[in-house]
Amino acid sequence: MNIQSLAPWTHSEPAQWQRERDPFMTLQQQMNRLFDDAFRGVGGSAAARGVWPAVDVTDNGDHLRVDAEVPGLNEDDLEVTLKDGVLTLSGERQTENADADKRITERFMGRFVRQIPLGFEVDEDNVKASFDNGELTITLPKTNGDGAKRIEIGKAS
């Protein structure tokens, strides 16, 4: 939110309407707008919160499936890594017309990093990723067991 959105003269409403209204009503509307802007990103969809790309993580028993929407990208624009139980999606979405005189820009452009804690031990050697028509699908097989390794105890010599 910028400070100009709080000033009553920066809105598209004609000045004559602003003068005729009750000043307390104007104050109340500005306070409502202030709180609406402050709490707009709480809850709601990932896109509404500014988290990109939007993902779905599904637990299918023996494996996890992660689906990410990445429209406008191809496989070469993306990188997928897995380290310490955290799946990381990163990449860059290039601007088509950097020189253009844009009036409104709502599409996400630039670098992004999205980290997803998995909460399960994953068989890292058998992770598979596929990409089709702007949809990235990652299949992460779970390991058999709790990830603990039994250590044999031998006699001291």
From TrEMBL:
<protein>
    <submittedName>
        <fullName>Heat shock protein Hsp20</fullName>
    </submittedName>
</protein>
<dbReference type="InterPro" id="IPR031107">
    <property type="entry name" value="Small_HSP"/>
</dbReference>
<dbReference type="InterPro" id="IPR008978">
    <property type="entry name" value="HSP20-like_chaperone"/>
</dbReference>
<comment type="similarity">
    <text>Belongs to the small heat shock protein (HSP20) family.</text>
</comment>
<dbReference type="Pfam" id="PF00011">
    <property type="entry name" value="HSP20"/>
</dbReference>
<keyword id="KW-0346">Stress response</keyword>
<feature type="domain" description="SHSP">
    <location>
        <begin position="46"/>
        <end position="156"/>
    </location>
</feature>
<dbReference type="InterPro" id="IPR002068">
    <property type="entry name" value="A-crystallin/Hsp20_dom"/>
</dbReference>
